Amino acid sequence: MSHKGHLFIVSGPSGVGKSTILRAILEKRPQLQYSVSYTTRPRRRNEQDGVDYHFINERAFRKKLEANEFAEWAEVHGHLYGTSGRYIEQALNKGQDVLLDIDVEGGKALSAKYPEGFRIFIAPPSVEELERRMKGRDTDAPDVVGRRLKNAQAEMAQAHLYDRVVVNDDLAQTVSELEEIIEKVHSRN
Fold this sequence. Notes:
The strands form two sheets. A five-stranded parallel β-sheet has the order 2-7-1-8-9, sandwiched between helices. It is built from seven helices and nine strands.
């Protein structure tokens, strides 16, 4: 008898290293399905459409919203983001595990819709280190970094809502810890 897949909801503040961590996890566990979100945010120079996000304009996003295609959606930092409900359902029903990189508000919405999902919060070692990482990315203007830091502190205050909190102090250690969590949850069947 086939089993339903597991949903892994990964959140953490902007700049904490979620994308880098999840890329490493997906390289080590290619059987995991990564849910690529839709966004109206402009593409950064190192991002690929369909890999990092599905980059669409606001009109196309609103059409999908009206068609009830999103399991959750939100406006974050002035841009729209949404998660495909169809993609999640199809993968889970095939017995595939799905990995989501999502903000705290989206994580709450998905947790309500998928209470069986396992929630992992990636935290920075400190706010100062998070600020250093954000500035080091050199992708955002100083006012944007300031806004993201303020939002990060609000998100970190909600880490207790997650099943596990992993501090990203050392990339290899963080990836290893996430792998262990995924393996434990996956082997529950």
